[in-house]
Specification:
Length: 69
Amino acid sequence: MEMSYSVVNEIMNGQRPLTPNSALMFEAALGVEADTLMRMQLKYNMQIARGDKKLADKFNKIRNFAAIL
């Protein structure tokens, strides 16, 4: 698959993000559509971002400011 075991392992364990290129390699190897894999990566990224307290604090500041307008 032209991808080292360690890279595959890191992707599978959430230690490295899936890229469009790696998604296409998984598609070729496993028959799972790259688009589906990329949507899964996006959902994972969003879940991590929503759990970030610093980012949540920024969102609250933005919401408060927007409510004033």
